[in-house]
Amino acid sequence: MELSTAGLMIFALLGAGYILLQLGGGVNTTASPAVQKLAQAIAKAEGFYTAGSRPARNHNPGDMTQDLIGKAVGQDGPFPIYATDADGWADLYAQINLWMSGGSEHADPSSTIEDLSSFYTANDQSTWALNVANALGVPVDTEIGQIA
User: Fold this and answer.
1) CATH at 112
2) pTM (2 decimals)?
């Protein structure tokens, strides 16, 4: 069976996409200043900066429940454990980038900090939103796309 040039190109592109996904390249883990600010505020609200907290122990600053980058080395209940803080930050950045790009089913740039609290935490959602907003120096009704 002979593959056409177009068939070979499609095969090569699919293979490259698979490799990128396996390496965590299928998600945007870059961090613009706005993404960094929101990530740091979320990490603060989640307790990452408190020694011995679950987010600190798990190298998971956002206390994320999904491993978007494929680098988890274990699980702590529903929470991925990462080998390094850098991997945990990359996972949180990937999540925020999905929100900022409109690629998430839960949030987009017009979502407010208060909107995020409705699905991001199961605990005291109003306190979480207030903690994130205070860390950013903005009100809870600030749209995440307006964070500079």
Assistant:
1) 1.10.530
2) 0.82
All residues at 6 or more sequence positions from 6 whose CB lies less than 8 Å from its CB, including other chains: none
> Domain limits at 139?
28-146
Number of domain units in the chain: 1
Residue-wise pLDDT for 108-129, tens only, equals: 999 999 999 999 999 899 999 9
Q: Average pLDDT over the chain, rounded to whole?
A: 87
Tokens 């990462």 locate to 82
Q: Would you say 111 and 129 are in contact if contact means Cβ atoms under 8 Å apart?
A: no
Contact (CB, 8 A) for 55 and 63: yes
- What is the rounded CA–CA span in Å between residue 112 and residue 106? 11
Residue 81, H or E segment: strand 79-81
Is residue 62, in this structure, part of any structural domain at all?
yes
